[in-house]
Amino acid sequence: MAVKLIAIDLDGTLLNSHHQLSDNIITTLQQARKNNIQVILASGRPYSGIQPYIQQLGFNQPGHYCISNNGSVIHDASNGNHLVDFLLDLDDYKKIYEQTEALSLSLHALGDNKIFTANKIIGFYTTHEAYLSNTLIHYTPIEEMQCNIQFTKLMISSEESYLSSVIKKIPASFYQQYTLVRSTPYFLEVLNKNANKGLAIQALAQQLDLEKHEIMCIGDQNNDLPMFDVAGICIAMENATDELKSRATHITSCNNSDGVAKAIEKYAL
User: Fold this and answer.
1) Is 242 a catalytic residue?
2) Which of 72, 83, 90, 269 has the most Cβ atoms closer than 10 angstroms to its Cβ?
3) Residue 35 gets which letter from DSSP?
4) Which of 9, 11, 92, 258 is catalytic?
């Protein structure tokens, strides 16, 4: 059966190390759309960090979709409107903030195309996230946050070695209440329990009346693992984690060698 939906991670997968789309990638994805294949950008970034690539690909038209914040939101790619979302609230922020303060970790939250943090000292990785996602940082003490504020995700950050050492100190109850994702070596993301990339793709597939064997997913990090649960063709990049590679049906070249284009040309076009 032909592939009818391709879900693709951005950083480390679709984009090269300079966070750019190659000409070959653009041509291949546009050809997939001409072949009536839905191409879904599925990223940990907020919509503001995905939107420039949607425009560059020409996918900012009705009938196109994207997934942001590791599956917290399914967007109409033409305007960014939320079609489905799974959010967090102020009580969630307070609970996670208390834990990160105890463990000397930085915390910021994404919501309404803004980054919020109650940390007086803005961490390096918060600044890095703001740069990648084209999003402004708002320092807001907890007591000044609106009681009805909602977030698409919370991001705990620190140096890789320290974050790895303290993750085991996070209460087991958090894993029952939330989806926790190590999206990069320096980020641990906290999402609504119902949010991950796989569930978002599954929701879109149901809307489009597609079956598992008609879905192809491509990624590089462990936050892409849920995508592999709902796809018939699972592509790991050469630069992917060992765990993701172990779950892949195929492995393609790295993100600096147009691995996504090669995989689509071989298995979908």
Assistant:
1) no
2) 72
3) T
4) 9
Ramachandran area for residue 130 (φ above 0: left; ψ -120 to 50: alpha; else beta): alpha
pTM of the full structure: 0.89
CB 95 within 8 A of CB 178: no
pLDDT tens across 204-220, in order? 999 999 999 999 999 99
Q: Set out the domains of the chain in order of their start, with CATH numbers.
A: 5-85+195-268 (3.40.50.1000), 90-191 (3.30.1240.10)
Residue 66 dihedral angles phi and psi, to the nearest 5°: -150, 160
Sheet hosting strand 178-184, strand order edge to edge = 136-139, 114-117, 106-111, 153-157, 187-192, 178-184
Rg of the chain (C-alpha set): 18
- Residue 236 pairs in a beta bridge with 219, 251
Beta bridge partners of 190: 154, 180
Beta bridge partners of 192: 178
Reported residue count of the chain is 269
